[in-house]
Write a structure and sequence with these properties.
Elements lengths: L1 H4 L4 E2 L11 E8 L12 E6 L6 E13 L5 E4 L2 E8 L12 E6 L10 E3 L2 E4 L2 H4 L3 E6 L4 E5 L8
Parallel strand pairs: 4-7
Antiparallel strand pairs: 1-2, 2-3, 4-6, 5-11, 6-10, 7-9, 8-11
């Protein structure tokens, strides 16, 4: 009857202090009921996966830059916000200085209407980029891109 009353058993305490990776140990099984005795192996192999809980951060004032063109090109908006998700340990490394937003204008030609293009977002350095995901762009994902005709000198 005592065994039926047990809903679980415990293991000895395993410290994870200072750890940030997966950890596997053999630990003793602990039964808090003096009437119940464990027969057979008195230990179990326990694997703990330690992960940071991701946070979301919005970085404002990231400049949208046009690359791969010699033409006069205007973008609107010229600055965007980038919403990112990643571990708290990289949060201090997130700023407009390490987020690059570019519009590749290599294949764009002058025309009356604007192009609506999504900028490419790149994070630097690589160790931050590998751990962070771009969730959204604000105020909008698509950027208005106007390529000016050199002959008209304007729009």
């Amino acid at each position: 009857a005592a065994i039926e009353a047990l809903s679980s058993v415990s293991t000895e305490v395993m410290s994870v202090a200072g750890r940030s990776d997966t950890l596997t140990r053999t630990v003793a099984v602990v039964v808090d009921d003096p009437v119940v005795r464990v027969e057979g192996p008195q230990s179990v192999r326990l694997t703990l996966t330690i992960e940071e809980i991701p946070i979301t951060a919005q970085i404002e004032d990231v400049e949208v830059m046009v690359v791969n063109t010699s033409q006069r090109v205007a973008v609107n908006p010229t600055f965007i916000g980038v919403v990112l998700r990643g571990p708290p340990s990289v949060n201090d490394a997130l700023s407009p200085d390490n987020i690059v937003a570019t519009i590749d204008a290599a294949d764009l030609t002058p025309r009356a209407e604007d192009y609506r293009l999504e900028p490419t977002i790149r994070l630097v350095p690589d160790e931050v980029a590998r751990r962070v995901e771009v969730i959204a762009l604000t105020p909008q994902r698509l950027i208005d891109v106007h390529v000016f005709d050199r002959r008209s000198g304007g729009r």
